[in-house]
Amino acid sequence: MEQSPHCALCGDGALEFAMEKNFPICDPEDLKSPYAIVINHTDFKEYVKHHYMGNPVNDHPDDRETNHTVSAAAMDGQNAKGNPIEACPDDPETNDTVSAVAMDAMGHLACATSTGGIAGKLKGRVGDAPLVGCGGYANKMGGATTTGVGEAIMKLTLAREVVYNMENGKNAQESARNALDKMEEFDDGFGGVIAIDKNGNFGKAFNTIKMVWASIKDNTLEFGMEQDEVDTEQL
Asked: Domains of the chain by range and CATH?
């Protein structure tokens, strides 16, 4: 957006632009997770249901000792053909969305997001993360990013819905909660939201079992993972 007049590029054009700007290029083979290989589209709906519920997995003795958890995407199970899908608790590729919202010293607001992808999708499927207003959105009133079932997020343009609430006088926390409740009512979707409003207030909401989050304001770090969990540290 700083080096072209466009808001977004895709496909071969995006690759050519990235190479022209000497941006590091990822090998597509590096994006293939174990689950992308063993799970096909006939498994998609069932896989998504378990993946985005956010259930922790602590079945391995070593995990219980260290309290290590992973998402339900790493659960033992079977695919539609009856072939086993084994848990991979130490596999970093079972991770999900990483995103952020921020305000600088001048009061400018911004958001950034990435995606962990989802196994079993059809070729060519586009998720919420690259779509403005779905995976992320920011203007002078607030910023928001999302995680969860991309199809449900896109139907509501969830990030835009969060900021719309802030434009109508709600703070970041109220806006995140209202928008997520609307998505759940509208599409029964699973997911989570983080948000920041024009006053620097942070908000978060999720309807999964867990969502890891953290915020920093005035040298105070707040963080949590479970519903209503808020821990605090001074920096």
From this structure: 95-234 (3.60.20.30)
